[in-house]
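new request in #modeling-help
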Amino acid sequence: MGFFIETLIGGLMTGMLYSLVALGFVLIFKASGVFNFAQGAMVLFAALAMARFSEWIPQWLGIESKFVANALALVAAMAAMVVVAWLIERLVLARLVNQEGITLLMATLGITYFLDGFGQTLFGSNIYKIDVGMPKDPLILFEGLFPGGVLVSQEDLAAAVIAAALVALLSAFFQFTGTGRALRAVADDHQAAQSIGIPLNRIWVITWSVAGFVALVAGIIWGSKLGVQFSLSLVALKALPVVILGGLTSVPGAILGGLIIGVGEKLSEVFIGPMLGGGIEIWFAYVLALVFLLVRPQGLFGEKIIDRV
Amino acid sequence: MAERAVAERPTGDVILDVRNISLRFGGVKALTDISFNVREHEIRAIIGPNGAGKSSMLNCINGVYAPQEGSITFRGRTFDHMNSRQVAEMGVARTFQNLALFKGMNVIDNIMSGRNLKMKSNLFQQALRLGAARREEEAHRAFVERIIDFLEIQAYRKTPVGRLPYGLQKRVDLGRALAMEPQVLLLDEPMAGMNVEEKQDMCRFVLDVNDEFGTTIVLIEHDMGVVMDISDRVVVLDYGKKIGDGSPDEVRANPEVISAYLGTSH
Protein backbone atom coordinates (compact mmCIF):
# COMPACT_ATOMS: atom_id res chain seq x y z
CA MET A 1 0.00 0.00 0.00
CA GLY A 2 2.79 2.41 0.88
CA PHE A 3 4.42 1.69 -2.46
CA PHE A 4 1.13 2.32 -4.30
CA ILE A 5 0.73 5.72 -2.65
CA GLU A 6 4.33 6.55 -3.39
CA THR A 7 3.81 5.80 -7.08
CA LEU A 8 0.57 7.76 -7.03
CA ILE A 9 2.20 10.84 -5.53
CA GLY A 10 5.14 10.55 -7.91
CA GLY A 11 2.64 10.45 -10.77
CA LEU A 12 0.79 13.49 -9.48
CA MET A 13 4.01 15.49 -9.31
CA THR A 14 5.05 14.60 -12.85
CA GLY A 15 1.49 15.29 -13.94
CA MET A 16 1.62 18.78 -12.50
CA LEU A 17 4.64 19.49 -14.68
CA TYR A 18 2.84 18.25 -17.78
CA SER A 19 -0.03 20.51 -16.81
CA LEU A 20 2.28 23.47 -16.70
CA VAL A 21 3.33 22.98 -20.31
CA ALA A 22 -0.23 22.17 -21.37
CA LEU A 23 -1.34 25.40 -19.74
CA GLY A 24 0.77 27.33 -22.24
CA PHE A 25 -1.12 25.70 -25.10
CA VAL A 26 -4.49 26.41 -23.54
CA LEU A 27 -3.70 30.06 -22.78
CA ILE A 28 -2.75 30.90 -26.33
CA PHE A 29 -5.58 28.88 -27.81
CA LYS A 30 -8.12 30.53 -25.55
CA ALA A 31 -6.88 34.00 -26.24
CA SER A 32 -6.08 33.90 -29.92
CA GLY A 33 -7.56 30.72 -31.35
CA VAL A 34 -4.08 29.64 -32.38
CA PHE A 35 -2.85 26.16 -31.62
CA ASN A 36 0.66 27.14 -30.65
CA PHE A 37 2.93 24.33 -31.68
CA ALA A 38 5.89 26.44 -30.55
CA GLN A 39 5.09 26.12 -26.83
CA GLY A 40 7.78 23.42 -26.40
CA ALA A 41 10.33 25.55 -28.19
CA MET A 42 9.38 28.45 -25.93
CA VAL A 43 10.03 26.27 -22.87
CA LEU A 44 13.48 25.43 -24.23
CA PHE A 45 14.21 29.04 -25.15
CA ALA A 46 13.13 30.29 -21.72
CA ALA A 47 15.13 27.62 -19.90
CA LEU A 48 18.23 28.37 -21.98
CA ALA A 49 17.87 32.08 -21.30
CA MET A 50 17.48 31.44 -17.57
CA ALA A 51 20.43 29.03 -17.41
CA ARG A 52 22.82 31.27 -19.30
CA PHE A 53 21.76 34.57 -17.72
CA SER A 54 22.22 33.11 -14.24
CA GLU A 55 25.73 32.16 -15.38
CA TRP A 56 26.57 35.40 -17.20
CA ILE A 57 25.07 37.99 -14.91
CA PRO A 58 27.37 37.27 -11.93
CA GLN A 59 30.36 37.53 -14.33
CA TRP A 60 29.19 40.81 -15.83
CA LEU A 61 28.22 42.48 -12.60
CA GLY A 62 30.48 40.65 -10.20
CA ILE A 63 27.66 39.56 -7.94
CA GLU A 64 28.41 36.96 -5.31
CA SER A 65 24.94 36.25 -3.99
CA LYS A 66 23.31 33.34 -5.75
CA PHE A 67 19.85 34.55 -4.88
CA VAL A 68 20.38 37.99 -6.43
CA ALA A 69 21.93 36.41 -9.52
CA ASN A 70 18.95 34.10 -9.94
CA ALA A 71 16.47 36.91 -9.41
CA LEU A 72 18.19 39.09 -12.01
CA ALA A 73 18.39 36.15 -14.41
CA LEU A 74 14.67 35.57 -13.94
CA VAL A 75 13.91 39.18 -14.82
CA ALA A 76 16.24 39.06 -17.83
CA ALA A 77 14.75 35.78 -19.07
CA MET A 78 11.23 37.16 -18.69
CA ALA A 79 12.23 40.26 -20.62
CA ALA A 80 13.58 37.98 -23.35
CA MET A 81 10.23 36.17 -23.49
CA VAL A 82 8.34 39.47 -23.80
CA VAL A 83 10.62 40.47 -26.67
CA VAL A 84 9.93 37.10 -28.31
CA ALA A 85 6.18 37.65 -27.85
CA TRP A 86 6.41 41.13 -29.33
CA LEU A 87 8.43 39.91 -32.33
CA ILE A 88 6.00 37.04 -32.97
CA GLU A 89 3.11 39.52 -32.99
CA ARG A 90 4.94 42.04 -35.17
CA LEU A 91 6.45 39.70 -37.71
CA VAL A 92 3.96 36.84 -37.87
CA LEU A 93 0.53 37.27 -36.32
CA ALA A 94 -0.12 40.85 -37.42
CA ARG A 95 0.20 39.67 -40.99
CA LEU A 96 -2.21 36.79 -40.52
CA VAL A 97 -5.29 38.50 -39.02
CA ASN A 98 -8.53 36.71 -39.86
CA GLN A 99 -6.73 33.75 -41.44
CA GLU A 100 -7.75 30.11 -41.05
CA GLY A 101 -6.63 28.22 -37.95
CA ILE A 102 -4.57 25.84 -40.06
CA THR A 103 -2.55 28.74 -41.51
CA LEU A 104 -1.75 29.98 -38.04
CA LEU A 105 -0.81 26.46 -36.92
CA MET A 106 1.66 26.22 -39.79
CA ALA A 107 3.09 29.58 -38.81
CA THR A 108 3.70 28.38 -35.24
CA LEU A 109 5.38 25.28 -36.67
CA GLY A 110 7.80 27.65 -38.37
CA ILE A 111 8.27 29.59 -35.14
CA THR A 112 9.14 26.29 -33.42
CA TYR A 113 12.07 25.59 -35.74
CA PHE A 114 13.22 29.16 -35.59
CA LEU A 115 13.15 29.36 -31.79
CA ASP A 116 14.87 25.98 -31.41
CA GLY A 117 17.71 27.08 -33.66
CA PHE A 118 17.92 30.70 -32.66
CA GLY A 119 17.87 29.88 -28.94
CA GLN A 120 20.83 27.56 -29.33
CA THR A 121 22.67 30.07 -31.49
CA LEU A 122 22.27 32.77 -28.87
CA PHE A 123 22.77 30.72 -25.76
CA GLY A 124 24.83 27.75 -26.95
CA SER A 125 23.84 24.14 -27.42
CA ASN A 126 25.55 22.33 -24.55
CA ILE A 127 23.78 20.93 -21.53
CA TYR A 128 23.38 23.63 -18.89
CA LYS A 129 22.10 23.51 -15.38
CA ILE A 130 19.66 25.72 -13.58
CA ASP A 131 20.09 25.88 -9.85
CA VAL A 132 17.44 27.98 -8.17
CA GLY A 133 17.96 26.24 -4.85
CA MET A 134 15.18 23.70 -5.15
CA PRO A 135 15.34 21.27 -2.20
CA LYS A 136 16.78 17.98 -3.39
CA ASP A 137 16.42 15.69 -0.38
CA PRO A 138 13.48 13.32 -0.28
CA LEU A 139 10.91 13.58 2.42
CA ILE A 140 9.50 10.63 4.28
CA LEU A 141 5.84 10.88 5.20
CA PHE A 142 3.28 8.71 7.03
CA GLU A 143 5.91 6.66 8.77
CA GLY A 144 3.40 5.66 11.40
CA LEU A 145 0.87 4.42 8.85
CA PHE A 146 2.98 2.27 6.56
CA PRO A 147 6.15 0.32 7.19
CA GLY A 148 8.99 2.47 5.89
CA GLY A 149 6.70 5.42 5.21
CA VAL A 150 6.12 7.13 1.85
CA LEU A 151 9.02 8.68 0.00
CA VAL A 152 8.28 12.07 -1.57
CA SER A 153 10.70 14.23 -3.53
CA GLN A 154 10.78 17.72 -2.04
CA GLU A 155 11.74 19.14 -5.40
CA ASP A 156 8.58 17.73 -6.98
CA LEU A 157 6.52 18.96 -4.11
CA ALA A 158 7.83 22.51 -4.50
CA ALA A 159 7.22 22.34 -8.25
CA ALA A 160 3.65 21.19 -7.70
CA VAL A 161 2.96 24.04 -5.30
CA ILE A 162 4.39 26.60 -7.73
CA ALA A 163 2.36 25.16 -10.59
CA ALA A 164 -0.85 25.17 -8.56
CA ALA A 165 -0.35 28.79 -7.52
CA LEU A 166 0.32 29.81 -11.10
CA VAL A 167 -2.84 28.11 -12.29
CA ALA A 168 -5.01 29.77 -9.67
CA LEU A 169 -3.52 33.14 -10.57
CA LEU A 170 -4.12 32.74 -14.29
CA SER A 171 -7.69 31.47 -13.91
CA ALA A 172 -8.55 34.48 -11.78
CA PHE A 173 -6.91 36.81 -14.28
CA PHE A 174 -8.96 35.40 -17.16
CA GLN A 175 -12.26 35.34 -15.28
CA PHE A 176 -12.23 38.50 -13.25
CA THR A 177 -10.30 41.26 -15.01
CA GLY A 178 -11.26 43.49 -17.89
CA THR A 179 -8.11 42.55 -19.75
CA GLY A 180 -8.94 38.87 -19.26
CA ARG A 181 -12.33 39.52 -20.78
CA ALA A 182 -10.75 41.32 -23.73
CA LEU A 183 -8.45 38.32 -24.23
CA ARG A 184 -11.42 35.98 -24.35
CA ALA A 185 -13.26 38.32 -26.69
CA VAL A 186 -10.37 38.28 -29.16
CA ALA A 187 -10.33 34.49 -28.99
CA ASP A 188 -13.98 34.30 -29.99
CA ASP A 189 -14.20 36.80 -32.80
CA HIS A 190 -11.44 39.03 -34.19
CA GLN A 191 -13.72 41.33 -36.11
CA ALA A 192 -16.28 41.87 -33.39
CA ALA A 193 -13.46 42.51 -30.92
CA GLN A 194 -12.03 45.20 -33.18
CA SER A 195 -15.46 46.79 -33.64
CA ILE A 196 -15.71 47.43 -29.90
CA GLY A 197 -12.24 48.92 -29.88
CA ILE A 198 -10.10 46.09 -28.52
CA PRO A 199 -6.56 46.47 -29.90
CA LEU A 200 -5.72 43.06 -31.38
CA ASN A 201 -1.98 43.60 -31.50
CA ARG A 202 -1.63 44.60 -27.87
CA ILE A 203 -3.80 41.69 -26.73
CA TRP A 204 -1.64 39.27 -28.69
CA VAL A 205 1.56 40.59 -27.17
CA ILE A 206 0.01 40.17 -23.71
CA THR A 207 -1.14 36.62 -24.45
CA TRP A 208 2.18 35.48 -25.84
CA SER A 209 4.01 37.15 -22.97
CA VAL A 210 1.84 35.28 -20.47
CA ALA A 211 2.47 32.04 -22.38
CA GLY A 212 6.16 32.96 -22.33
CA PHE A 213 5.97 33.39 -18.56
CA VAL A 214 4.35 29.98 -18.16
CA ALA A 215 7.03 28.52 -20.45
CA LEU A 216 9.68 30.14 -18.29
CA VAL A 217 8.29 28.64 -15.08
CA ALA A 218 7.98 25.23 -16.77
CA GLY A 219 11.47 25.59 -18.20
CA ILE A 220 13.00 26.41 -14.82
CA ILE A 221 11.30 23.52 -13.06
CA TRP A 222 12.02 20.96 -15.79
CA GLY A 223 15.47 22.40 -16.33
CA SER A 224 16.50 22.17 -12.68
CA LYS A 225 15.24 18.59 -12.66
CA LEU A 226 16.66 17.28 -15.93
CA GLY A 227 19.19 19.88 -17.02
CA VAL A 228 18.67 22.31 -19.88
CA GLN A 229 19.14 20.63 -23.22
CA PHE A 230 17.44 20.29 -26.57
CA SER A 231 15.25 17.39 -25.43
CA LEU A 232 13.40 19.88 -23.22
CA SER A 233 11.47 21.09 -26.22
CA LEU A 234 10.17 17.54 -26.64
CA VAL A 235 8.43 17.77 -23.29
CA ALA A 236 5.81 19.65 -25.26
CA LEU A 237 4.96 16.45 -27.11
CA LYS A 238 3.89 14.96 -23.78
CA ALA A 239 1.65 17.96 -23.23
CA LEU A 240 -0.30 17.34 -26.44
CA PRO A 241 -2.22 14.32 -25.09
CA VAL A 242 -2.83 16.32 -21.91
CA VAL A 243 -4.50 19.05 -23.92
CA ILE A 244 -6.61 16.53 -25.82
CA LEU A 245 -7.68 14.95 -22.57
CA GLY A 246 -8.52 18.18 -20.79
CA GLY A 247 -9.96 20.12 -23.68
CA LEU A 248 -8.17 22.86 -25.59
CA THR A 249 -10.12 25.70 -24.03
CA SER A 250 -10.11 24.72 -20.39
CA VAL A 251 -7.55 25.76 -17.77
CA PRO A 252 -8.86 23.27 -15.17
CA GLY A 253 -8.89 20.67 -17.95
CA ALA A 254 -5.18 21.17 -18.57
CA ILE A 255 -4.49 20.63 -14.87
CA LEU A 256 -6.66 17.56 -14.46
CA GLY A 257 -5.51 16.15 -17.80
CA GLY A 258 -1.90 16.49 -16.70
CA LEU A 259 -2.58 14.80 -13.39
CA ILE A 260 -4.48 11.92 -15.00
CA ILE A 261 -1.71 11.29 -17.50
CA GLY A 262 1.03 11.65 -14.91
CA VAL A 263 -0.64 9.22 -12.52
CA GLY A 264 -1.85 6.91 -15.29
CA GLU A 265 1.54 6.39 -16.84
CA LYS A 266 3.32 5.82 -13.53
CA LEU A 267 0.75 3.38 -12.18
CA SER A 268 0.42 1.45 -15.42
CA GLU A 269 4.18 1.25 -15.74
CA VAL A 270 4.56 -0.19 -12.27
CA PHE A 271 1.53 -2.46 -12.10
CA ILE A 272 0.68 -3.43 -15.70
CA GLY A 273 4.13 -2.93 -17.16
CA PRO A 274 5.63 -6.22 -16.04
CA MET A 275 2.80 -8.13 -17.76
CA LEU A 276 3.48 -6.46 -21.10
CA GLY A 277 7.22 -6.34 -20.80
CA GLY A 278 7.46 -2.73 -19.65
CA GLY A 279 7.92 0.54 -21.49
CA ILE A 280 4.27 1.52 -21.09
CA GLU A 281 5.21 4.95 -19.76
CA ILE A 282 6.34 6.00 -23.21
CA TRP A 283 3.12 5.38 -25.08
CA PHE A 284 0.45 5.36 -22.37
CA ALA A 285 -0.43 9.06 -22.75
CA TYR A 286 -0.91 8.81 -26.49
CA VAL A 287 -3.16 5.75 -26.33
CA LEU A 288 -5.27 7.45 -23.68
CA ALA A 289 -5.53 10.56 -25.87
CA LEU A 290 -6.56 8.39 -28.82
CA VAL A 291 -9.34 6.77 -26.79
CA PHE A 292 -10.54 10.23 -25.77
CA LEU A 293 -10.55 11.44 -29.36
CA LEU A 294 -12.85 8.55 -30.23
CA VAL A 295 -15.19 8.87 -27.27
CA ARG A 296 -15.13 12.52 -26.28
CA PRO A 297 -13.37 14.65 -28.87
CA GLN A 298 -13.92 17.93 -27.02
CA GLY A 299 -12.01 16.59 -23.99
CA LEU A 300 -13.09 16.54 -20.36
CA PHE A 301 -13.91 20.24 -20.04
CA GLY A 302 -13.75 21.54 -23.58
CA GLU A 303 -16.65 23.42 -25.08
CA LYS A 304 -19.03 20.97 -26.66
CA ILE A 305 -19.01 21.22 -30.42
CA ILE A 306 -22.55 21.90 -31.55
CA ASP A 307 -23.32 22.83 -35.12
CA ARG A 308 -26.40 24.83 -35.89
CA VAL A 309 -27.95 23.43 -39.03
CA MET B 1 -44.60 53.39 -34.19
CA ALA B 2 -45.69 54.21 -37.68
CA GLU B 3 -47.54 57.30 -36.60
CA ARG B 4 -44.36 59.04 -35.46
CA ALA B 5 -44.20 61.75 -38.06
CA VAL B 6 -40.77 62.55 -39.40
CA ALA B 7 -41.11 66.27 -38.77
CA GLU B 8 -41.53 65.72 -35.02
CA ARG B 9 -38.02 64.51 -34.55
CA PRO B 10 -35.43 67.23 -34.15
CA THR B 11 -32.46 66.37 -36.31
CA GLY B 12 -29.28 68.37 -36.11
CA ASP B 13 -26.21 69.06 -38.18
CA VAL B 14 -24.50 66.62 -40.48
CA ILE B 15 -22.49 64.24 -38.28
CA LEU B 16 -21.38 61.77 -40.94
CA ASP B 17 -20.73 62.73 -44.53
CA VAL B 18 -19.93 60.09 -47.13
CA ARG B 19 -18.50 61.44 -50.38
CA ASN B 20 -17.95 59.72 -53.71
CA ILE B 21 -17.11 56.34 -52.26
CA SER B 22 -16.06 53.67 -54.74
CA LEU B 23 -15.08 50.18 -53.67
CA ARG B 24 -13.83 47.40 -55.92
CA PHE B 25 -12.90 43.83 -55.19
CA GLY B 26 -10.67 42.96 -58.14
CA GLY B 27 -12.96 43.44 -61.12
CA VAL B 28 -16.16 43.51 -59.10
CA LYS B 29 -17.51 46.97 -58.44
CA ALA B 30 -19.17 46.72 -55.04
CA LEU B 31 -19.85 50.46 -54.74
CA THR B 32 -19.70 53.18 -57.36
CA ASP B 33 -19.53 56.86 -56.47
CA ILE B 34 -21.83 56.82 -53.44
CA SER B 35 -22.51 60.04 -51.55
CA PHE B 36 -24.94 60.71 -48.74
CA ASN B 37 -24.95 62.26 -45.30
CA VAL B 38 -26.35 61.47 -41.88
CA ARG B 39 -27.67 64.13 -39.50
CA GLU B 40 -27.41 64.04 -35.75
CA HIS B 41 -30.23 62.20 -33.95
CA GLU B 42 -31.80 60.86 -37.11
CA ILE B 43 -32.53 57.31 -38.12
CA ARG B 44 -31.00 56.87 -41.52
CA ALA B 45 -31.71 53.70 -43.48
CA ILE B 46 -29.74 52.17 -46.31
CA ILE B 47 -31.91 49.79 -48.29
CA GLY B 48 -31.61 47.82 -51.47
CA PRO B 49 -32.10 44.33 -52.84
CA ASN B 50 -29.68 41.53 -51.95
CA GLY B 51 -26.19 42.22 -53.27
CA ALA B 52 -26.83 45.94 -53.67
CA GLY B 53 -23.72 46.84 -51.65
CA LYS B 54 -25.40 47.78 -48.36
CA SER B 55 -23.09 45.80 -46.12
CA SER B 56 -20.06 46.95 -48.11
CA MET B 57 -21.15 50.53 -47.47
CA LEU B 58 -21.45 49.89 -43.76
CA ASN B 59 -18.06 48.16 -43.70
CA CYS B 60 -16.49 51.21 -45.35
CA ILE B 61 -17.91 53.50 -42.67
CA ASN B 62 -16.79 51.04 -39.99
CA GLY B 63 -13.26 50.84 -41.37
CA VAL B 64 -13.36 47.14 -42.23
CA TYR B 65 -12.97 47.88 -45.96
CA ALA B 66 -10.84 50.62 -47.41
CA PRO B 67 -12.60 52.21 -50.39
CA GLN B 68 -10.36 52.97 -53.41
CA GLU B 69 -11.93 56.40 -53.91
CA GLY B 70 -13.85 58.90 -51.85
CA SER B 71 -13.77 60.15 -48.29
CA ILE B 72 -15.76 59.92 -45.10
CA THR B 73 -16.15 62.91 -42.79
CA PHE B 74 -17.11 62.21 -39.22
CA ARG B 75 -17.78 65.18 -36.96
CA GLY B 76 -15.69 67.49 -39.11
CA ARG B 77 -12.71 65.14 -39.46
CA THR B 78 -12.15 63.72 -42.91
CA PHE B 79 -10.64 60.30 -43.54
CA ASP B 80 -9.97 58.31 -46.63
CA HIS B 81 -8.86 55.30 -44.67
CA MET B 82 -9.25 54.23 -41.08
CA ASN B 83 -9.32 51.01 -39.12
CA SER B 84 -12.09 49.50 -37.02
CA ARG B 85 -10.47 50.43 -33.76
CA GLN B 86 -10.06 54.10 -34.58
CA VAL B 87 -13.67 54.18 -35.65
CA ALA B 88 -14.69 52.62 -32.34
CA GLU B 89 -12.62 55.21 -30.46
CA MET B 90 -14.43 58.01 -32.25
CA GLY B 91 -17.76 56.77 -30.95
CA VAL B 92 -19.13 54.57 -33.70
CA ALA B 93 -20.52 51.18 -32.66
CA ARG B 94 -21.95 48.47 -34.87
CA THR B 95 -23.89 45.25 -34.85
CA PHE B 96 -23.36 42.39 -37.25
CA GLN B 97 -25.57 40.78 -39.85
CA ASN B 98 -24.24 37.32 -39.09
CA LEU B 99 -24.00 37.48 -35.33
CA ALA B 100 -20.46 37.95 -34.14
CA LEU B 101 -20.97 37.50 -30.42
CA PHE B 102 -18.30 36.07 -28.13
CA LYS B 103 -19.78 32.59 -27.94
CA GLY B 104 -17.79 31.32 -24.99
CA MET B 105 -19.03 34.13 -22.72
CA ASN B 106 -22.29 34.77 -20.99
CA VAL B 107 -24.59 37.72 -21.67
CA ILE B 108 -23.07 39.97 -19.02
CA ASP B 109 -19.50 39.41 -20.19
CA ASN B 110 -20.46 40.00 -23.81
CA ILE B 111 -22.02 43.34 -23.00
CA MET B 112 -19.24 44.20 -20.53
CA SER B 113 -16.69 43.72 -23.31
CA GLY B 114 -18.34 46.71 -25.00
CA ARG B 115 -17.09 48.84 -22.09
CA ASN B 116 -13.50 48.02 -23.03
CA LEU B 117 -12.66 51.49 -24.33
CA LYS B 118 -14.10 53.12 -21.22
CA MET B 119 -11.87 51.17 -18.86
CA LYS B 120 -9.11 53.33 -17.51
CA SER B 121 -7.33 51.05 -15.03
CA ASN B 122 -4.32 49.22 -16.39
CA LEU B 123 -3.46 45.56 -16.48
CA PHE B 124 -1.63 45.49 -13.17
CA GLN B 125 -4.30 47.37 -11.26
CA GLN B 126 -6.85 44.93 -12.64
CA ALA B 127 -4.75 41.89 -11.88
CA LEU B 128 -4.28 42.98 -8.28
CA ARG B 129 -7.89 44.18 -8.03
CA LEU B 130 -6.79 47.41 -6.45
CA GLY B 131 -9.49 49.67 -5.08
CA ALA B 132 -9.71 51.96 -8.08
CA ALA B 133 -9.88 49.10 -10.56
CA ARG B 134 -12.53 47.35 -8.51
CA ARG B 135 -14.70 50.47 -8.20
CA GLU B 136 -14.38 51.04 -11.91
CA GLU B 137 -15.43 47.48 -12.69
CA GLU B 138 -18.46 47.91 -10.45
CA ALA B 139 -19.49 51.17 -12.12
CA HIS B 140 -19.27 49.54 -15.55
CA ARG B 141 -21.22 46.59 -14.28
CA ALA B 142 -24.00 48.91 -13.12
CA PHE B 143 -24.12 50.50 -16.55
CA VAL B 144 -24.36 47.07 -18.16
CA GLU B 145 -27.24 46.15 -15.86
CA ARG B 146 -29.13 49.21 -17.13
CA ILE B 147 -28.66 48.01 -20.70
CA ILE B 148 -29.82 44.54 -19.73
CA ASP B 149 -32.98 46.03 -18.19
CA PHE B 150 -33.52 48.22 -21.22
CA LEU B 151 -33.31 45.24 -23.58
CA GLU B 152 -35.44 43.08 -21.28
CA ILE B 153 -32.98 40.22 -21.07
CA GLN B 154 -32.63 40.10 -17.26
CA ALA B 155 -33.50 36.42 -17.16
CA TYR B 156 -30.55 35.46 -19.39
CA ARG B 157 -27.76 37.38 -17.66
CA LYS B 158 -25.61 34.38 -16.94
CA THR B 159 -26.55 32.26 -19.95
CA PRO B 160 -23.77 31.57 -22.47
CA VAL B 161 -24.89 33.47 -25.56
CA GLY B 162 -24.53 30.44 -27.80
CA ARG B 163 -27.51 28.86 -26.08
CA LEU B 164 -29.88 31.78 -26.60
CA PRO B 165 -32.44 31.81 -29.40
CA TYR B 166 -31.54 33.91 -32.43
CA GLY B 167 -33.77 36.88 -31.62
CA LEU B 168 -32.22 37.25 -28.18
CA GLN B 169 -28.69 36.93 -29.55
CA LYS B 170 -29.48 39.90 -31.78
CA ARG B 171 -30.46 41.85 -28.67
CA VAL B 172 -27.19 40.97 -26.95
CA ASP B 173 -25.35 42.12 -30.06
CA LEU B 174 -27.22 45.44 -29.80
CA GLY B 175 -26.48 45.58 -26.08
CA ARG B 176 -22.75 45.19 -26.64
CA ALA B 177 -22.83 48.08 -29.12
CA LEU B 178 -24.87 50.23 -26.69
CA ALA B 179 -22.35 49.57 -23.93
CA MET B 180 -19.90 51.68 -25.92
CA GLU B 181 -22.22 54.69 -25.47
CA PRO B 182 -21.85 55.41 -29.17
CA GLN B 183 -22.76 58.63 -30.92
CA VAL B 184 -23.47 56.74 -34.08
CA LEU B 185 -24.83 53.22 -34.13
CA LEU B 186 -24.49 51.16 -37.29
CA LEU B 187 -27.01 48.31 -37.49
CA ASP B 188 -26.45 45.64 -40.13
CA GLU B 189 -29.83 44.04 -40.88
CA PRO B 190 -31.02 44.07 -37.27
CA MET B 191 -34.28 42.37 -38.22
CA ALA B 192 -33.00 39.72 -40.61
CA GLY B 193 -34.33 36.25 -39.94
CA MET B 194 -36.77 37.39 -37.25
CA ASN B 195 -40.45 36.65 -36.92
CA VAL B 196 -43.00 39.46 -36.83
CA GLU B 197 -43.06 39.73 -33.05
CA GLU B 198 -39.26 39.84 -32.78
CA LYS B 199 -39.15 42.48 -35.51
CA GLN B 200 -41.60 44.64 -33.59
CA ASP B 201 -39.51 44.30 -30.44
CA MET B 202 -36.37 45.25 -32.32
CA CYS B 203 -38.09 48.28 -33.91
CA ARG B 204 -39.14 49.41 -30.48
CA PHE B 205 -35.59 49.10 -29.14
CA VAL B 206 -34.14 51.01 -32.07
CA LEU B 207 -36.65 53.83 -31.64
CA ASP B 208 -36.10 53.92 -27.87
CA VAL B 209 -32.34 54.09 -28.25
CA ASN B 210 -32.77 56.96 -30.65
CA ASP B 211 -35.24 58.74 -28.37
CA GLU B 212 -33.73 58.19 -24.97
CA PHE B 213 -30.02 58.40 -25.69
CA GLY B 214 -30.22 60.64 -28.74
CA THR B 215 -28.05 58.17 -30.64
CA THR B 216 -27.78 58.65 -34.38
CA ILE B 217 -28.68 55.42 -36.13
CA VAL B 218 -27.66 54.13 -39.54
CA LEU B 219 -29.41 50.91 -40.36
CA ILE B 220 -29.37 48.51 -43.23
CA GLU B 221 -32.37 46.45 -44.24
CA HIS B 222 -33.60 44.78 -47.35
CA ASP B 223 -37.15 44.48 -46.01
CA MET B 224 -38.66 47.80 -47.07
CA GLY B 225 -41.75 47.65 -44.87
CA VAL B 226 -39.99 47.84 -41.51
CA VAL B 227 -37.60 50.55 -42.54
CA MET B 228 -40.17 52.92 -43.95
CA ASP B 229 -41.96 52.99 -40.62
CA ILE B 230 -39.03 53.99 -38.48
CA SER B 231 -36.58 55.97 -40.62
CA ASP B 232 -36.32 59.68 -41.17
CA ARG B 233 -34.48 59.43 -44.44
CA VAL B 234 -33.64 56.52 -46.71
CA VAL B 235 -30.80 55.85 -49.18
CA VAL B 236 -31.54 53.22 -51.82
CA LEU B 237 -28.72 51.24 -53.41
CA ASP B 238 -28.90 48.86 -56.35
CA TYR B 239 -25.93 47.11 -57.97
CA GLY B 240 -23.59 49.37 -56.01
CA LYS B 241 -25.13 52.61 -57.24
CA LYS B 242 -27.32 55.08 -55.42
CA ILE B 243 -30.74 55.19 -57.03
CA GLY B 244 -32.73 57.11 -54.44
CA ASP B 245 -32.35 59.32 -51.40
CA GLY B 246 -35.02 61.09 -49.38
CA SER B 247 -37.91 60.71 -46.99
CA PRO B 248 -39.66 57.31 -46.96
CA ASP B 249 -42.56 58.72 -48.97
CA GLU B 250 -40.30 60.22 -51.62
CA VAL B 251 -38.40 56.98 -51.91
CA ARG B 252 -41.56 54.93 -52.16
CA ALA B 253 -42.73 57.05 -55.07
CA ASN B 254 -39.40 56.90 -56.93
CA PRO B 255 -39.90 54.88 -60.13
CA GLU B 256 -36.28 53.64 -60.14
CA VAL B 257 -36.70 52.26 -56.64
CA ILE B 258 -39.92 50.54 -57.57
CA SER B 259 -38.34 48.91 -60.58
CA ALA B 260 -35.32 47.78 -58.56
CA TYR B 261 -37.55 46.06 -56.07
CA LEU B 262 -40.30 44.78 -58.37
CA GLY B 263 -38.51 44.55 -61.70
CA THR B 264 -39.86 46.25 -64.83
CA SER B 265 -40.26 45.27 -68.42
CA HIS B 266 -37.87 47.28 -70.53
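bot summary: The mean pLDDT of chain A is 84.
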